[in-house]
UniProtKB/TrEMBL annotation:
Enzyme class: ligase
Cofactor remark: Binds 3 Mg(2+) ions per subunit.
Source superkingdom: Bacteria
PROSITE patterns: AA_TRNA_LIGASE_II
Protein name per UniProt: Lysine--tRNA ligase
Classification via InterPro entries: Aa-tRNA-synt_II, aa-tRNA-synth_II, aa-tRNA-synth_II/BPL/LPL, Lys-tRNA-ligase_II, Lys-tRNA-ligase_II_N, Lys-tRNA-synth_II_C, NA-bd_OB-fold, NA-bd_OB_tRNA
SUPFAM superfamilies: Class II aaRS and biotin synthetases, Nucleic acid-binding proteins
Protein species of origin: Kandleria vitulina DSM 20405
GO molecular function ontology, one term from the record: lysine-tRNA ligase activity
Amino acid sequence: MAEKRKFTQQEQVRRQKLEELANLGIDPFGQKYDVETYTSDIRREYGSCTKEELEEKKVSVQIAGRIIRRRRKGKVCFMDLLDRDGSIQLYVRKDVVGEEIYEIVKRGDLGDIIGVKGELMVTDMGELTVRVDEYTHLSKALRPLPEKFHGLTDTEERFRRRYVDLIMNEEARKVAFTRPKIIRSIQNYLDSKHFVEVETPIMNNILGGAAAKPFVTHFNALDSDFYLRIATELNLKRLIVGGMDAVYEIGRLFRNEGMDRTHNPEFTTIEVYKAFSDLEGMMDLTEGIIANAAMTVNGTYDIEYKGHKISLAPGFKRISMTDAIKEKTGIDFNEHMSFEDAKKLAEEHEIEVEPHFAYGHIINAFFEKYVEETIVEPTFVYGHPIEISPLAKKNLEDPRFTQRFELFICGNEYANAFTELNDPIDQYERFANQLKERELGNDEANEMDMDYVEALEYGMPPTGGMGMGIDRLVMLLTGQETIREVILFPAMKQLDK
């Protein structure tokens, strides 16, 4: 049997008002209402009008939204109504709406949803206002809103009750509406370049496409365990084999790892693949996607992020991983040195050498410790070691390294790209090496995907591929420093009941 709910005094008062509305013949939770305009449209078209101009124009509007402020004195009530785009003041007079309707107005609370029709005016204080002729109650709020000027001050509570955060927090609403604009800008940019947007399975029976710990689920109909995808890469490259030539997917990935300011276990990426392209082509495409998104949502390439002024105009810096390490440490990993020599350097620099580490893993560890967080301007770091790049083509001049880049801005990674490995024999050997790493304790190593190897045996053209984190791009373009600000419902620790 469900435990009987306990209500605060305010909640009890609101339930009493609900009954009073019902007794007046008013449905407390309303019916359809024809919204004819929004506050942003009103302010854009009439925000600069004078009091006299609006009196002459006699502009009638019909809007709906939530009461977020109200003050009533006798036969007059002022309210602020919040809709999708913003707020506007309402002016309600008893002698205009009538005594019966004013009884409904009197029972209004902060948070109630109403619809109004009226004429625009400018008050003596110079505020654009709707002089209400018709007032319609639409939905009763049975819980009080947080105090207006502080909102939800507990950050954890903001993310748990995002619906309240969106009501009270203008910045949260701005981010929520900007995110889809960024995604749409990416789609429009790629569509204009004749890429095709596709969808691939979220559940896979083989772990591949990235180095990450998966979520595992059980597929009852097949009586088999499946992984929630950690990447879309391998299926998208199967489509390149099939002749689709230029494809992309924007979708959710799932990695069963920790949470911090830039990581959420469920997140969104875009992966792009272009036949007959390469690493250089992916650099150009990545610059174009980011620059176009910045211009679309902000109207400029210039942003300020984490206290740094940054330009997102095409022409990002490009540097090899080994050169970047050499700049910071003086160590040149381009030189041919033994694994033992590299291991000794790691120990001297207090870098832990794990059991599965090879030469390339040590190079990557040096980069992560000494370089990654120091990068501010958009920078393509290329030439990753082969050991950490099982799906990238080898560097023709030095097979220890690959044709791969990562894009870093303000110490964070934003994109990862390859000249894709299309040699099925080499790919089989890379998968085999990954299995050896798993045996040595690397639970993020890829499994053997023989179907993918067989796909490559039918022939995949030289191809460029790139993956980019959508959440981090939204953070960058909206000035947010934690991923939970740009995901509407981020993963949260369950509260004790």
